[in-house]
Amino acid sequence: MTTLLKVENLKKAFNTRGITTRVLDDVTFSVETGEIFLITGRSGTGKSTLLGLLAGLDQASSGTIDFQGREITGMSLSELADLRAATIGMIFQSFNLIPSWTALENVEAVLMHRGIGREERRTRSAQLLGELGLKDRLHNLPAELSVGQQQRVAIARTLVNEPALILADEPTGDVDPETAADIMGLLLPRIKSGKTTMIVASHGLFDPGFADRVACLKDGRLEMQPGIITKPENRQ
Length: 236
Ligand SMILES: Nc1ncnc2c1ncn2[C@@H]1O[C@H](COP(=O)(O)OP(=O)(O)O)[C@@H](O)[C@H]1O
Ligand SMILES: [Mg+2]
Hints:
Layout lengths: L2 E14 L2 E14 L3 E5 L6 H8 L7 E6 L2 E2 L5 H11 E5 L10 H6 L9 H14 L15 H13 L5 E5 L7 H17 L3 E5 L11 E6 L2 E4 L12
Parallel strand pairs: 3-8, 3-9, 6-7, 7-8
Antiparallel strand pairs: 1-2, 1-4, 4-5, 9-10
Helix pairs in contact: 5-6
This protein binds adenosine-5'-diphosphate and magnesium ion.
């Protein structure tokens, strides 16, 4: 296995109206290619903040993030945006689907910047949505879909781009446990077969059995949880 991501001594503090909030104090970890890495921790401990730094949506106060052998902490926000578009997929609890676009259009749009022709964009997107159980929902708007179906559209949108790294922030947070299990059942085989790496942040609703490794964010530090490991079938 090769190391995809190496994070060292990462710190993040927010300064708002003269008040400094230190969120990440000293976060160090690495993630191997093909791994599903779960970050747990109570609400407000900084999981979304950490994912935002990994995605290049925000810049760290100090420390280093090496992604695919490139140091990203020194990059400009526009360089980070390019890197993100090419290699990183994000899944949020709130889905972030475009409300006036159909399921198919939401997925297709991701492929536009890659110079793929319209026919192929449609075919690939429709096929993936079909595999995720949405064959009959391609032309519905997000508001016409259930929460679980909306999340599957969001997952299709992420997977269609074949990202090297998926960052999932509370991906099953808004659905019932059965729907959450269904969603993960659809997502995980595709991640494993595509050799994609996924980092999931969840305050506890995500089944740790899906993960290869589990870490807990507490008091600004990330601690590995050696006890909580993994169904054998989830291992490479
Ligand atoms: N843009 C911001 N400005 C100031 N404080 C922030 C900002 N974003 C997050 N925080 C603070 O950082 C802490 C961690 O938030 P967050 O990363 O959302 O935690 P989690 O995802 O674990 O629930 C919270 O105390 C939150 O108020
Ligand atoms: Mg969060």
